[in-house]
Structures are given as structure tokens and as C-alpha cells.
UniProtKB/TrEMBL annotation:
Name this protein carries in UniProt: SRS domain-containing protein
Source species of the chain: Cystoisospora suis
Keywords assigned: Signal
Signal peptide: 1-25
UniProt superkingdom: Eukaryota
Lineage, top ranks: Eukaryota, Sar, Alveolata, Apicomplexa, Conoidasida
Length: 158
């Protein structure tokens, strides 16, 4: 009889432990570790390639973990980001980059480029701008946009 009681108490204790929140957390922690080993590293750069005489819409989603956009143009004389390397982007609704105007002292209209620094919440240092470089593996130009390590705004300012 004493053995049965001891066996019953041991089984009840084990069942209580296995159903407890601590055991639940331990089971999930171990499961997450195994699952995390099988996951690939997320892509840190949104990349696009513009080809000669081919119009393509490209949307990049930037976040706290994905702070870089890369645009590579195959033809050297053709510039997909003409004056925008000074820290501006074209507003939504522009279908032709030639229609995008750089801001002047006059009032801005629907085709006026928007400052990236103002769009990203007013970060002044370091300024948010496109950086032009030459790709190592191909002819043409490559433009990269890096966001600073400042907190991103919850909503854009437009």
C-alpha cells in the first residue's frame, strides 16, 4: 500500500510539473531553438535592378531591421536617380522620373521631390540620401540608400 501511495504521489507530482507554466515555457524555448536553426537569415537589403529601356515599378519596405535599399542600373549613361542623390525621393503618383522636379524656393507641387530626411521623421544627422557607386561585377551604376540608426517614425509625414 505504501508503494502505491508513493507511486501515485510521484505521478501526480510529475503531471503537475508537466502542466505547469514553467514546463510549458521550457518546452517552447527548446522548440524555438530547433525551429530557429532551420530558418534562413532574413534579407537585410531590398534590391532592384533596372534594365535598359524597361520601366519597372519597385517598392521597398524599410524597417528597423531592414535599413538598406539597393538599386543597380545596367547602363552607365542612363541615370535612374538623376538629382535624387542629394537626399530626395519622388512622391507617389509619378510614373516618369523626368516629371519629378527638384524643390526650389517656390511652392511645392505634386511633382516636387520630397526630402528623405523630412520623410523619415526629421533626422538631420546623418542625412538620409542615395549613395552612388560602381558595381564590382557589372557595368553601370549602383545606388544605395541607408537609413541611420535613429528610431523610425511610426507613420510617414506625407
Amino acid at each position: 500500500m505504501a508503494r502505491r501511495t508513493l507511486w501515485f504521489v510521484a505521478c501526480a507530482g510529475a503531471a503537475t510539473f508537466l502542466l505547469s507554466p514553467v514546463a510549458h515555457a521550457l518546452r517552447h524555448q527548446a522548440g524555438n531553438g530547433f525551429r530557429a536553426k532551420g530558418l534562413e537569415k532574413p534579407q537585410e537589403v531590398e534590391a532592384a535592378v533596372c534594365k535598359e529601356d524597361v520601366a519597372k515599378e519597385f517598392t521597398a519596405f524599410l524597417s528597423e531591421t531592414k535599413r538598406r535599399v539597393s538599386l543597380q542600373c545596367a547602363v552607365a549613361p542612363h541615370t535612374a536617380v538623376p538629382e535624387l542623390t542629394k537626399g530626395f525621393v519622388c512622391p507617389t503618383g509619378i510614373s516618369n522620373l523626368a516629371a519629378c522636379k527638384m524643390p526650389t524656393g517656390a511652392a511645392a507641387d505634386a511633382n516636387t521631390a520630397v526630402s528623405l530626411s523630412a520623410l523619415m521623421g526629421g533626422t538631420a544627422e546623418p542625412p538620409v540620401k542615395w549613395v552612388e557607386s560602381t558595381p564590382a561585377d557589372a557595368a553601370g551604376k549602383k545606388y544605395e540608400l541607408n537609413l541611420p540608426d535613429a528610431p523610425l517614425p511610426l507613420l510617414d509625414s506625407t
